[in-house]
Specification:
This protein is an alpha/beta fold. It contains 30 helices and 20 strands.
Length: about 800
Amino acid sequence: MSTERAIRERIDDAATAVGPVWPIHSFVTANPLSGFEDRPFSEAVSLAADRLGGRGYPSPETFRAALDDGRIDPELLDAELTERGYEADPETLLDRTESGAESGNPTGTETRGPSGGDEAEHPGVERVDRVLSKWLSAFLDEGQAEWSMPNREDGFYDAFRSVAPYDDEIPEKGLAADLPASPIDAVESVLGPYPEGRWGSVFEAQLAALPGWTGLIKRRAADDGAWQSAHPITLEGYLAVRLALLDAFDVDVAPPPESGDSEAETADEPADAFLSAWEASYRGELVDRVAAESEARGEAADARVDGGASGRPDAQLVFCIDTRSEVVRRHIEATGDYETHGYAGFFGVPMEYRGYDADASVDACPPIVDAQHRISEVPTDGDARASRDRLASLREAAGDVVEALKSNPATAFSFVEGAGSGYGVALAARTLLPGRVYDVLGAADDSTPDDHEFCEPGVHDHDDSGVGLPVGLTRDERVEYAATAFELMGWEAFGRLVVFAGHAAETANNPYGSSLDCGACAGNPGGPNARVLAAICNDPEVKAGLRERGHDVPDDTVFLAAEHNTTTDEIALYDGDVPDSHAEDLARLRADLDAAREGAAAERTGSDSGDAAVRETERRAGDWAETRPEWGLAGNAGFVVGPRELTSDLDLDGRAFLHSYDWETDPEGDALEAILAGPMVVTQWINAQYYFSTVDNAAYGSGSKVTHNPVGNVGVHQGNGGDLMTGLPLQSVMAAADEPYHQPLRLSTVLHAPVDRVTEVLADNEGVAELLDNDWLSLTVVDPTQEHRAFHYESDLEWTSPSGSERTEAPAAAVADD
């Protein structure tokens, strides 16, 4: 093997220890320890503590509070502790764990330094990090900087070579003083004193030193999007620059050789027992409620598949599986004969989407799915388009002038002198009267036609030229996406109105605003995806194709899109294609959605008045000083897959993802496989992001919003430099500095289906089974064919029976197929 190939392969291997990081404008909630998912959870958090400096379990104080509040069942905790051989009482064990953390026990590590080590002992490392982050910020900028770094089009390594001689912070010695033309040559030069067997540890240590920047580079290079194409950066180029700077600052690039087994044993830590008992306490209650509903409703021969009353519903609404949908769905169902369903928020269409007059396309699909189509907004109403363009042009021109005056060194000071009073009034209004400002801005937006009022998603004009992604969809593809949606949700009946509701958040002055948008749409609003599926389903050719596949969609069924504002709970209907014949249906739906909004807002704000609750949510959306405009998916702990009838009468407190599924309409298990390999994995990533951002926000989160420093439109610093923060802010997961709002539990999935069918699916999906085997999430099946009993997945395709004393092995056929 050539030296160049060996270096590249070892860099790739070392990079697996660092999780991918998406730019903040399209924030994707992902497991920061995704590179360790091939290991058991307890081992993974131990390795991460060693390499990234982060704590892997909740603090003893958090466990103690959960015990005191009754969230951990004492009997379940006693069983978990006994199984692990602990004889001391829980309080004594918590005291010991607390003492261990205070004395420097690795499992109690609170934070890491920007370079993963003790900077007081290595001041040279701190200087390297400062210089490197400065140039990374300049190079990786995505449209924020007024003055661009020179030679970005040549790639990071070459651009750095061109500016390094002019940077007074870099010593003029060592490799940095005369960088070779190739980054691989630079890396090889630094590695000269070290045997090849230590290269991997060198790369791993240096990539883990700034995991935020490394994760962003890793993701950007893998995506190969517009910014990467214009300004390429590679891990080898990044490492070459870092190693050269370490050499210039006389810092040893290699960590000391490992002595003995570096993988600390954490499976015996009491924290693991406390966490497992807490999860079992939550899961047990959820499973019991779902099993009881399954038994109570399972024998109702005259019930519709979707669980509603006989006859057609007033309307059917499909929401994202997002936990925030659970609250508003309950309130909608309470207003009339409405069915609500859960489906992944990209609505099954993996696409790259470009809005009308947008500067760039975005991936509107989950991070584990590659976009397959390019969809753009196509104008259809010339008058509305012209009106919108005129207003938009005026606003854009005025904004450009103001931005130029503010940012240009020649005019900035005089602009502030002249416009300061006006800005002062505006700042005072935003601070003192955010609700009024929200009303004014809303009225201004209402005066401008939205894109959906004069555009339609271009799904019909198919063009596969072989260059890039195919434009639009073929007739067969449109039929397939519509049929897949109905089959995944187990639909057999259709109302006169069927609404696909994407979701988005509305906040002010919030760099992390996209973290509140749709995770299934890669941190983007879900309205465009809803509009695409509605346009597909309204197509007469598609309806004909659906009938051929057994989906008898009535001629009077109209599909329309909507977008759920999760901050205010307003649901905006995109009703341009609804005929006059459905006017009464639409008017009734609008009124009921308004009523549901008031109820959901009151529940979320704790208000007795629906109107006051709505005003409060609008204030939060418009208040630029509001650190918690909404809680996002904080609190998520469960994922229920089954007919809505199993949860329609349950208040799940906005803590459960809900995916519609009917095993009886899925005889081959194809829909089940798609859900387990897709939405369940995505929800596990979301759950892991919230978990780790809560248990160690300094290492895996992003600290307080109050001290955020946005950089390059790609992330935030804490302070004026250093590493990019990678996870959620403190305010997204903590009610107070020492009081978690999010309960840090691993995801508990509850699935309504025959256990043997689930086993067969897991046998064919090793990656999903590995996540379960390694305890990154749990799975419990409520089997309607076995008296609605629950079976809990243990490992190796085996299940614990309801008695808890037996294990059910996988069917022989499933094992043979594996």
